[in-house]
Amino acid sequence: MEVPKEIFLKDYKLPDYYFDTVDLSFSLGEETTIVCAKISVVPRVDGVAAPLVLDGIDLKLISIKISGNELEEGYYHLDARHLILKAPPSGSFILETITEVLQKNSSFEGLYKSSGNFCTQCEAEGFRKITYFQDRPDIMAKYTCHIEADKSLYPVLLSNGNLIEQGDLEGGKHFAVWEDPFKKPCYLFALVVGQLESRDDTFTTYSGREVALRIWTSPQDLPKTEHAMYSLKAAMKWDEDVFGREYDLDLFNIVVVPDFLGAMENKSLNIFNSKLVLASPETASDANYAAILGVIGHEYFHNWTGNRVTCRDWFQLSLKEGLTVFRDQEFSSDLGSRTVKRIGDVSKLRTYQFSRDAGPMAHPVRPHSYIKVDNFYTSTVYEKGAEVVRMYKTLLGNEGFRKGTDLYFERHDGQAVTCEDFFAAMRDANNVDFANFLLWYSQAGTPIVKVTSSYNVESRTFSLKFSQTVPPTPGQHLKEPMFIPVAMGLLDSSGKDMPLSSFYQDGKLVSITSGAQHVYTTVLRVTKGEEEFVFHDLDEKPIPSLLRGYSAPIRLHSDLTENDLFFLLAHDSDGFNRWEAGQILARKLMLNQVVNFQKDEKLVLDPQFVHGIKCILLDSSLDKEFISKAITLPGEGEIMDMMEVADPDAVHVVQSFIRKQLALELKQEFINKVKENRSSGKYKFDHVNMARRALKNTTLGYLACLEDEEMSELVLNEYKSATNMTDQFSALAAIAQKPGKAREDALADFYNKWQHDFLVVNKWLSLQSASDIPGNVENVKKLLDHPSFDLTNANKMFSIIGGFCASYVNFHAKDGSGYKFVGEFVLQLDKLNPQMASGVVSSFSRWKRYDDTRQNLAKAQLEMIMSANGLSKNVYEIVLKSLV
Ligand code: 0A1
Ligand code: ZN
C-alpha cells in the first residue's frame, strides 16, 4: 500500500488561481452522469503562470477547453487524483471540462443515488468526485447549475440559490437552472433530484422580506415534517433576535434522505438524514424531537457561520463548527431549560471529548496535521470548539460577545478566514487583552486545575489557590498554562449567595462592578501555572461554588469536603453546580465501591448519598428534568476515565448495585413519581411536558432494576398503556435491562408493532445492540441477519455497531469476543464506506487503558486490520495513531 501523505497546517499556501464564476451543467442518466463545468479562472498574481492543479477522483475526462479551444494531451497531465494544466495562459481565462461520473458510489461523497433519488455531499472533499476543481474552501465563486433529467422519474430538480428557469425538453426530459448570488466554497454546492414532495411555509424576515420555506421528503413522510418546520422558523427568528443575522435569499430548502451521514448546510439546500427531520409523537421520542430542533438550528445557523464567512482551510474547521455548535446549544437553551441543556452538553463533552483528549487520538481544536480531514469531524473540533466560543462569551458578557460577532461578520462577510480572525474580532470589538487565549486552539488535552481554599478568621479573608497542568498528548509533551475563566460565587452558611465586590489577584485589587446591582457570580481569570485570589471582609467561612455553568472545559479538583458538596447540592443558586456537586459525590462513591469490588469486599451505599438523592427527588420547587438528571449516576466511561487501569466489569457491577440499592431504598418515592407524572392528553413538545416524562421514565428505569413481580407488572403496564414513543420506548428499555422472557416478549411485541417504520426499527436495533446483558455479542450477530438490517444504510449500521461499542462490558468482554466481532466488521465496512469504518475502528483507540489480557486482544485486532489489503486512508490513519 502506498503510504498516505500527511498534510500540515504550517504548509498552507494561498492558491495561485482563484475561480470567479462556476457554471455547472448536469445531465443525469441511469448509468452515468455527464457534468460540464465552465469556470472563469483568475490568477492571484498577474503574469505568474504556475501550473493549475485540479483535484478529481473517479472521473472520466471527456474534453477540456481553454478559452474555447480544445486542449491537446501534451498540455495537461492526468492521474488518479488530479488534472494538471501544465502551463495555463497568463491572465484570466475560461476553463471548460466535460466529465463522466459513474453512478455506482457507496461512499456518500460526491454525487450518489439514495433510495432512487440523486443527492450530493461535498464536504469536506467530495466535490472532486463531481468535476475537476480546486477542491479547497478558500476558492469561493458564484455558481449556476443547469440540471437535466427524465421528468417522470425525477420530477424535482434542486440546487443552491434561486430557480431562474425551468422547462420541458424532448424525450420526456425536463430542466431547471439555479443561480446562487452568493460566493461560496465548493463544499457547499448541492444538487438533489428525484421524486419528492414538500411541506411549504413562509418566514418574514425582520426587514420584511418573505422567504419561502420547503421541506422535501417522500410523500408518505410529509406529515412528519411539522416539527422540523417549527424548528426552522424558530431558528430563523432566534438568529435575528440574538445575533442580528437575517436570512439572505428568498428560498430555503431542506431535503430528507434516508441514508445520509448526519446533516449538511449546503447553501439554501440543507440535506438531512431522516432521523434528524421526521417526527411524530407516536414514532419519535423527546430526545429525537430535541435533536431535530438542535440540528435544524445548527444547519440553518451555518448560513452565517460557515457559509457567508467560511474557513480558509480544513484545519480551521472549528471556526465554523465550534461556533455553530455553540449557537445551536444556545438556541436550544433559550427554547427549553438552560440548566438542563448545559448539563446534557457537559455530559456529552465529558463522555466523548475528554476521553478522546486523554488518548492517542487527542488533537487540538485546530489540528496541526491530518491524513484524512474526514477523521477530524470530532468532538474536539465540534464540542470543545463550542466551549472555546463559550469562554469568549463568559469573559466578555452578552453585549461584548455580540459586539465581537458583529465585527466578525462585518469584517469577513464573503471571505474564507481563520480562527485568529475570530479571536481578533472578539478582541478588537472589546478592546481587551486576551493574554494566551489562543492556546485553546493549539494545545490538546484537558487542563487539570487544582483549587485549595482557606479562610482566615482573624483577617476575615478567603483565599483560593489555583494550580493548573495540561497533560501531554501525542506530539505535545510540554504545555504552557492556559487562560481559564472560572465563574464562581460564595455561599454563606444559610446557603445564600454572598454579594461580591472585589478580590485581590497576585496582590492587586480587582473590583467587581455591575452598576448599582449586587454581583453574586464573578469570573476569575486564571492564566498562570499557580495563582491566588483573595476575598476580603467576609464575616464567616464561605463555601465556594466554582466553575459555575461549567465556564471552562477543564477537570477541576477542589478540596471541597463531602459535607461542602452535599451543601452545594442542596443550596447552590447555580443549577449546573448543584447537579455537579451530586455528580462529584456519585463519582467518589462509585470509585470507592469499585475498589471494594476489586478487593472482593462487600458493596455498600452511603446513607447520606441516598438522603441527598431523596431530598432532590422530593423538592417540588425544582424543575422535573433537572431532578431526572440529578438522580442519574455518572456514565460508566466517566468512572473508568478516573481509574489507573479501566475495569469495565467492576464499574458495571458497581453501577448496577447502586441503582438497585437506590431503587430498594426509595421504592415508594419512585413509584409516586411514576404515578404523578404519567402522560395525559395530547403529546406536547415543550419543556414542562418533556420534564414530566423525563422524571417519570427515569424513576421507572430504577424500579425496573428490582426483582419484584409487582414492579415488573408496573413497568409492563407503562409499556402497554403508553400513548407516545417517549413513554413506550423508555418502558421497553426499562424492561430490556434484565434478560428473560419478559424482555424477549416485549422486544418481539415492539418489533411487530413497528416493523413498517424504519426509524423506529433502528431504535429497536440500537436498544438491543447497546445492551449490557451478558454475552450480548451473540444476539448482535443474529441482528445482522435480521431482515431489517442493511449494511449499506448508515443509520442501521450505526444503530448496531455504534450501539454495541457503547456497551463497555460487551465490547470489552474479557474473552475478546467483542473485539473480534468489531474488528472483522470494520474490514467488511471499509470496502463500502471508509468514513463509517474509521468511526467504528476508533472504538479501539484507547486499548492501552485496559488490563494486559484486553490490551493483547485489542491490539491483535488493530494489527489484523492494519495488515489487510486495500485499507482506506481513513481507517489507516486511525489504526496507525492507535497503535503508536
Ligand atoms: N458540516 C456538517 C457536517 C458534515 C460533514 C461531512 C458530511 O458528510 C461526509 C456530512 C456532514 C455539519 O456540521 O453539520
Ligand atoms: Zn456543522
Describe this protein's structure.
With 884 residues, the protein is α+β, with helices and mostly antiparallel strands. The strands form eight sheets. Strands 6-5-9-3-2-12-15-14 form an eight-stranded mixed beta sheet, with no helix packed on it. Strand 25 and strand 26 form a beta hairpin. Helix 16 packs antiparallel against helix 17 (725-735) and helix 23 runs antiparallel to helix 24 (834-841). The model has no long low-confidence stretch (mean pLDDT 96). The structure holds O-methyl-L-tyrosine and zinc ion. Residues 121, 123, 261-265, 298-299, 321, 377, 835 line the site of O-methyl-L-tyrosine (0A1). It is an enzyme of class 3 (hydrolase). It comes from Lactuca saligna (Willowleaf lettuce). GO terms for molecular function: alanyl aminopeptidase activity; metallopeptidase activity; zinc ion binding. One of its GO terms (biological process) is proteolysis.
The secondary structure category is: alpha+beta
Tally of extended strands?
A: 33
User: What proportion strand?
Assistant: 15-25%
Low-confidence stretches: none
Cofactor: Zn(2+)
InterPro entries: Aminopeptidase_N-like_N (IPR045357), Aminopeptidase_N-like_N_sf (IPR042097), PepN_Ig-like_sf (IPR038438), Peptidase_M1 (IPR001930), Peptidase_M1_dom (IPR014782), Peptidase_M1_pepN (IPR012779), Peptidase_M1_pepN_C (IPR024601), Peptidase_M1_pepN_C_sf (IPR037144)
Protein name: Puromycin-sensitive aminopeptidase
EC number: 3.4.11.14
